[in-house]
Structures are given as structure tokens and as C-alpha cells.
Amino acid sequence: MHKVVVIRHPRENKKKCSMRFLEGREGYFFDIAADGFSFDATGYLLLEIGAPQISEAHKGLPILLLDSTWHLLPRLRGKVKGDFIPVSLPPHLATAYPRKSKLFGDPSGGLATVEALYAALRLMGQPDESVLDNYRFKEEFLKKNFPQDFEPQA
Questions:
Q1: What's the pTM value of the predicted model, to 2 decimals?
Q2: Could you give phi then psi for residue 45, rounded to 5 degrees?
Q3: CB 141, CB 132: distance < 8 Å
Q4: Which of 83, 96, 100, 140 is most buried (CB neighbours < 10 A)?
Q5: What are the boundaries of each domain within the chain?
Q6: Which of 99, 90, 136 lies closest to 114 in space, CA to CA?
Q7: What pLDDT, in 10s, does the model give residues 99-117?
Q8: Three-state DSSP class for residue 66
């Protein structure tokens, strides 16, 4: 069983949130970073672009996910305190989520939050495909990033 904390920016559209189907699931905790909110992430893995890559050495550690648009992420990140472990995912991973922002660019290697969670658990040696069960772009994401899991069509 893994422990996952998801902190959402208050302006994150819950209807578009890739993590919404995991709410209420054992081991998953959700919070909204309203005014005055802070989170002590001591001992947590925090997924961040540019950090050292996550690996099986991190197996069993709790994961903190920040759920926000890329544009609002720095404000959300500022609410995280404590002695956490920043980790990243391999840069070759690509999202299947269709991005539509006309105002702000997304970083290369940026994934939907549920995609990042799946990849992190897999790279930690704790694969759990069930986190993608209700994700609309599950098959496309897996085929794009983990093609070895699919049998060739005859």
C-alpha cells in the first residue's frame, strides 16, 4: 500500500482533474491549498522537473503531488515546507492528455498528475495500473510510454 497526498490549487478545475477518480481510495489524501495553507512534506517524495530521477531506492516512501496548471504551480509549490525529497521522472515520458492552454506553455516532460503518479510508482518498483483505471487517456499513455506492455497485433 502506498501513501499519496495530493494538494490542489484552489483554481484547479476538478472536472478536468486527472486525479478525481482516486478520491476516497485507501492511502490517498486530498487537500486544497486555500489562503494560509501550508504542508509539512518532511519525508515525502515531491515530484519536480529537474530533480534527481526517482528509482527503486525510493520504494515505500510517501508521495506528494501538486495538482495545478503549470502556470499556477510556483504558488502552490511555495506552500510546501519541510525536509522533503525532490525527485523527477525520466524526461522521455510524454503525456497523452491533450493540452489546450493558449496563454501559457507547458514544460516538455510535463505529465498529467495521474500519469506522473503511475510512472513514479512503476519506477519505484510498486507498479499499480489501477491508478489509471478511470483515466480517459490510459491506453494512449501506456502505449506511448510503456510499449513493451502491449502485445503486437497479429
A1: 0.86
A2: -85, 135
A3: yes
A4: 96
A5: 4-149
A6: 136
A7: 554 444 545 557 889 999 9
A8: strand
